[in-house]
Design goal:
Elements (H helix, E strand, L loop, with lengths): L1 H19 L1 H11 L3 E6 L4 E4 L1 H9 L13 H10 L3 H16 L4 E6 L8 E8 L6 E8 L1 H21 L10 H18 L3 E8 L2 H8 L1 H17 L6 E6 L2 E7 L3 H17 L10 E7 L6 H17 L5 E3 L3 H17 L6
Parallel strand pairs: 9-10
Antiparallel strand pairs: 1-2, 1-5, 3-4, 4-5, 6-8, 6-9, 7-8
Length: 345
Amino acid sequence: MKTDLEERHRRSQSDKSAASHFPRLLQAALDSLDSQIAVIDCTGVIHYVNKTWCDFGKENGIPSGYRWIGANYLAVCHTAGSRGDGDGQQVYAGIRAVIESGAPCFQYEYPCHSPNEQRWFMMRIAPMLEAENFFVVSHNVITGRKLAEQRIERLNEKLALLAVTDKLTGLANRMKLDEALESEITRARRYEKKLSLILLDVDHFKEVNDKFGHSAGDAVLVRIAEILRANVRATDIVGRWGGEEFLLILPECDVEAASCMAEKLRLIVERHRFAFVDTRTCSFGVAAYQSGQDGTTLLSLADSALYRAKNSGRNRVEIAMNIKQYVNTRARTNRLARLNQPVDS
């Protein structure tokens, strides 16, 4: 029993010793943190800063020996904000919300880049527990996370671009063209805008693959894609519709202007000398949007015009019939089909 009492007494004395040194131990612990820590009162005046806070100040131009205690952190943020610093404005408003309106906390991410590296920090302020009218301000380094987020964002952008890009030609792919056409049809319908399509096909393309090989065929498609991209307006959308077919979506363009563009492209392709295969030609179908059409109808009109260009000798531009003629023709076809159906007995 005597031994137990002695052990308890020793522990008690040890605890008292640790307790008496607690402020010093707490100071050492706070100085060991990577976070920049300060304590301010309800007016914004600083009452305490840890070593990391002071070191960061020195690294960013604060004179050595600067006395932080007594400086007004809130006033510094207000001054920065009044000079047009957006981060300063945000931090000033957030601190006031915690101090004056009783918000539980405020945190804000901000860049603080140095000449040699990009850096980001997370600023946070919250009331001190058991210390009314005092608040803890901390700044934590979040550079690693922000750089990782940037890498992920760039990767996602690249993946998003790949998802709508034709791998061979670098043009918009079928999915992107479908989306763009739907969007432009909606815009043309809502604002009564002009819209035209050009659908083109490389003539006798199978012959190229069979005679010169698929690599030569791919080279032809890539070069035609470059020709199209270089000879359309910035607002036009150019894509590979599939195989050796390309689609041009031309906002704010009537059928006459679209036909002129198609003829211009036809001549450029006709006069071009392609690697391995010398000359090639393309056939073109042009269609213009009219009220009441949807994307499927407009594409069908362009495709019908392209089909006529192919059947009329290739290397030519054909314009689609207008929507009324198209509807009437389709209606006649449907009526004939019904008349030819066997009658139920």
